[in-house]
Write a structure and sequence with these properties.
There is one protein chain. It contains 17 helices and eight strands. It has about 450 residues and is an alpha/beta fold. It has two domains: about 190 residues; about 260 residues, P-loop containing nucleotide triphosphate hydrolases (Rossmann fold). The chain has an eight-stranded mixed sheet.
Length: about 450
């Protein structure tokens, strides 16, 4: 029984699969267990047969070991492998050229590709099983044991699609390899807030961070700050603004990047444009803004937008939502705290499902404006939010002056907590962290301590 359409023999389709295998965690989570290197074994006449085969094998091997896409590591991985097996200079050059092709390729329609892979694999396994049963029956060799064995293999694809279980006791070598080189640490981006980065690391893919602060303390500025910090670290950011208009967000980002005060952006267009272009040259990823100020933005709707962007070729590494009080709960509850419980449960599952870093912000209670240390007990509406996130960072009133903020790690599942640092802001330039002013205040504080 033959399958009429074999997508795996279409070169363009294979290239798109390989690109997704190198870049897209959702595609790998759905399909990696069904794919193997021999699916990409070259067919006579294919332009990139051998290079594609090698790259696909290494991408699958990397995901098996580290449970994440190889991304930019694919080049080093493949070239090291090619040299280790003594591949010739001409073949290595072909692989280099193919890697350039894959790097530039931004496959659209990943969901469609995923569906085609699953459909083909299902049909192929059924056809293979039926043909084997027919052959054994004709030969008079179809025993009950063989019937059971073939049927079991045929339904195994469903088990793998549902990711039923992982055998912990057979995976120690892979876990050791995954931890080698401190891979997890390298996946956690910096805040680019020096005193904070020196004390604690942030969060990585599949995790949720939350900033908490009183009204007008700087929750939104903090989220905008980490958005620009993340794109500088080559992460694609999808920013949802649910309270401030897109124009306001764009103006604040222009002020952050150009260091021109917000109220003077219109006076210095040349300076703004020049500094913006210099910043853009440093960035090799994208920051996309979604205006959700008209309301109706639930976690399900946010997921739909993420998928829409993914289908168009934009793969978000980070989702930032400003802020949680504007997220519509999945269902109306008698008390607001129950709605927040549903919202944060959905956010956690969303971050895990797409292996993204997720940051949002939350409001603290009235009367906390002058407090230095803000904990989960000071959260408005639902203090249990802090237990549902990976990291909670509060913005309290600093000791230095009214422009200072005390950053307090109120909670952290994977690093130190209940520690903090003071930083200086410059809200005229939309900076939640002014490096120069902070350094000067720290030096002044050090001199004062030495003098006493």
């Amino acid at each position: 029984m033959a399958i009429e359409t074999n997508f795996f023999e279409d070169e363009d389709f294979q290239d798109r699969m390989v690109a997704l295998m190198c870049k897209d965690s959702k595609f790998l989570r759905d399909c990696a267990s069904l794919l193997e290197g021999d699916d990409f074994k070259p067919v006579k006449g294919m332009r990139w047969g051998r290079p594609r085969w090698v790259v696909a094998e290494r991408a699958l091997d990397h995901y098996t070991k580290y449970h994440e896409p190889c991304g930019k590591l694919i080049r080093a991985n493949v070239l090291a492998y090619a040299e280790s097996i003594g591949m010739g200079a001409r073949q290595i050059e072909e692989i280099r050229e193919y890697l350039k092709l894959i790097r530039k390729l931004k496959p659209s329609g990943p969901s469609a590709i995923t569906d085609m892979v699953l459909t083909y694999k299902t049909q192929h396994l059924k056809a293979q099983a039926i043909q084997e049963l027919v052959d054994l029956q004709v030969a008079g060799q179809l025993t009950d044991e063989k019937w059971y064995d073939i049927s079991r293999k045929a339904v195994s694809i469903v088990e793998r699609m549902n990711r039923v279980s992982t055998d912990y006791f057979t995976g120690v070598s892979d876990r050791i390899e995954r931890r080698r080189g401190d891979i997890t640490q390298n996946r956690v981006p910096l805040f680019f807030i020096d005193p904070l980065d020196a004390k604690v690391k942030g969060i990585g893919p599949g995790q949720i961070g939350m900033s908490l602060a009183p009204t007008k303390r700087g929750k939104s500025l903090f989220l905008l700050w980490i958005a620009q910090a993340f794109v500088l670290q080559r992460l694609n950011v999808l920013f949802f603004t649910l309270e401030d208009s897109q124009a306001e967000v764009e103006d604040r980002l222009d002020s952050i990047i150009s260091k021109v005060p917000l109220q003077r952006l219109h006076e210095k267009p040349k300076t703004v444009k020049s500094r913006f272009l210099n910043f853009k040259r440093l960035v090799h990823t994208q920051l996309r803004i979604i205006d959700g100020t008209e309301g109706g933005m639930s976690v399900a709707r946010i997921e739909q937008i993420l998928l829409r962007e993914r289908e168009s070729g934009f793969r978000a590494d980070v989702v930032i939502i400003d802020y949680d009080d504007e997220i519509v709960p999945p269902k109306k509850q008698k008390e607001r705290r129950f709605e927040f419980s549903d919202i944060y449960r959905d956010l956690r599952q969303f971050a895990s499902r797409y292996n993204i870093i997720l940051w949002t912000a939350a409001q603290t209670q009235r009367g906390t404006e002058h407090m230095k240390i803000l904990s989960g007990d000071h959260l408005a509406e639902d203090f249990s939010k802090i237990r549902k996130v990976t990291m909670a960072l509060s913005l309290g009133q600093g000791d230095w002056n009214k422009d200072s903020i005390y950053l307090w790690v109120a909670a952290h599942r994977h690093d130190k907590q209940h520690l903090g640092c003071t930083i200086m802001t410059d809200k005229n330039r939309m900076l939640i962290y002014d490096r120069e002013r902070t350094r000067k205040m720290m030096d002044k504080e050090t001199d004062s301590d030495l003098g006493s």
